[in-house]
């Protein structure tokens, strides 16, 4: 049983982002148990300690997803970096030995957790609002829908999240995402023929369904300022009446105009500032945009979110993120918006600890030399990080 042939624990532990995780990995039961504990502490977080528990279980689950063999004996799980030798290993051992972990089942059925989980599925709601609603006595999504509209009307994101709860929690299928992607990027190419686009997020990692569509745009800096192109795309969609709701993420103000000869990575910060348009989009129920886009939606324009959701409509609400990047940022933006979230965390942690680099979706900064490192492709970025290139579908940490 142990040791596993062709598995070298030392190599596996040397560098976490050298690991690979595909969706169809071999230890799904253990990973699911650890993911649930992570979600539990993320959802029910009251303190910094709870938040750290959520992160620790997410790291442990990621380590399990990367194992290149099916674990059959808990001895095989000893000494794995990320899994550790404590709580997460105990959970994994119980699953292995009996297929059952009492703590996981207890938490999975925890009444408060179940309510908070439902609340967090409302677009725009995170753990703190969920906790507030719970404290007010709400328990179900029906309770939320009955909320005195005052409570949610002052936040139009949450108002739409509640009104379109069912639409937005129905998984978005790959075919629907690809359809929407083509429609939106065709529009973008009419505006700026040289634009480069990609469908990122979970779909690029090989998922067959997801919670939204993530579209990344790349264009030359001088032609399009901060929101330039993605604002123009949103305008077009709005003119056609296809946007239910949208919000631009806040940045620290307009990006500095680049002087000639300045760094190709113009931004002075590694914080996440890529201009992003978060959209709730009208997706045609018959999957066909050609006739749909010529319809007259003016009658829907002045309806509030609840009226609109309950109207007799020929579409379903779908979440789309439009993200803008300059050509110089693009390889970094691609990695950042491909994820997974946990994969990104491990990359950034490694870059900082091992190389004293700061990595973000905007670029890579060498803190020792105080300079930005340019890249043309994702492969370049991996090379700069002294890592073996990993395909998007190998980044499912
Ligand atoms: P999401 O669209 O939130 O996630 P996803 O596409 O991986 O999965 P889903 O099917 O649920 O949509 O984010 C897209 C990518 O952006 C994600 O894979 C990683 C990155 N990201 C972060 O790194 N940190 C974050 O906080 C968020 C929201 C996203
Ligand atoms: Mn996504
Ligand atoms: Mn998500
Ligand atoms: Mn997204």
From TrEMBL:
Q: Which UniProt keywords apply?
A: Magnesium, Metal-binding, Nucleotidyltransferase, Nucleus, Transferase
According to the record, the segments passing through the membrane are: none
Q: Does the keyword Metal-binding apply?
A: yes
One GO molecular-function annotation for this sequence?
metal ion binding
Gene Ontology CC annotations of this record: nucleus
Compartments it resides in: Nucleus
Where is it mainly found?
Answer: nucleus
Needed cofactors, names only, are: Mg(2+)
The family annotation for this protein states:
Belongs to the DNA polymerase type-X family.
Protein name listed in UniProt: BRCT domain-containing protein
- Species of origin reads Daphnia pulex (Water flea)
Note the residue range shown relative to the complete protein.
142 to 538 of 538
């Amino acid at each position: 049983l142990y040791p596993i042939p062709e598995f070298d624990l030392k190599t596996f532990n040397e560098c976490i982002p050298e690991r690979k995780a595909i969706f169809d990995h071999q230890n799904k039961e253990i990973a699911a148990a650890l993911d649930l504990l992570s979600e539990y502490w993320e959802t029910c977080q009251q303190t910094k300690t709870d938040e750290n528990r959520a992160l620790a279980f997410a790291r442990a689950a990621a380590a399990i997803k990367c194992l290149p063999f099916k674990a059959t004996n808990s001895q095989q799980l000893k000494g794995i970096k990320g899994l550790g030798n404590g709580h997460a290993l105990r959970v994994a051992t119980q699953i292995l030995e009996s297929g059952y972990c009492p703590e996981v089942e207890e938490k999975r059925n925890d009444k408060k957790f179940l309510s908070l989980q439902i609340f967090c599925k409302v677009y725009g709601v995170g753990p703190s609002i969920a906790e507030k609603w719970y404290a007010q006595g709400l328990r179900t999504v029906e309770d939320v829908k009955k909320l005195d509209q005052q409570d949610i009307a002052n936040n139009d994101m949450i108002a739409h999240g509640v009104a379109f709860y069912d639409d937005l929690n129905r998984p978005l299928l790959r075919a629907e995402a690809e359809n929407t992607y083509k429609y939106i990027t065709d529009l973008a190419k009419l505006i700026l023929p040289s634009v480069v686009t990609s469908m990122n997020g979970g779909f690029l990692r090989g998922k067959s369904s997801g919670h939204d569509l993530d579209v990344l745009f790349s264009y030359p800096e001088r032609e399009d300022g901060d929101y330039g192109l993605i604002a123009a795309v949103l305008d077009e969609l709005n003119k056609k009446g296809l946007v239910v709701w949208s919000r631009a993420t806040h940045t620290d103000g307009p990006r500095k105009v680049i002087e000639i000869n300045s760094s190709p990575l113009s931004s002075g910060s590694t914080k996440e500032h890529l201009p992003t348009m978060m959209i709730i989009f009208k997706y045609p129920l018959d999957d066909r945009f050609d006739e749909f886009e010529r319809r007259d939606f003016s009658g829907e324009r002045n309806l509030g979110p609840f009226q609109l959701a309950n109207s007799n409509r020929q579409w379903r609400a779908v979440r789309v993120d439009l993200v803008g990047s300059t050509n110089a940022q693009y390889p970094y933006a691609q990695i950042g918006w491909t994820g997974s979230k946990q994969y990104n965390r491990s990359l950034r942690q490694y870059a900082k600890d091992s190389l004293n680099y700061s990595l973000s979706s905007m670029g890579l900064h060498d803190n020792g030399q105080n300079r930005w490192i340019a890249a043309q492709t994702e492969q370049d970025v991996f090379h700069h990080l002294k890592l073996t290139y990993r395909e998007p579908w190998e980044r499912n940490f």
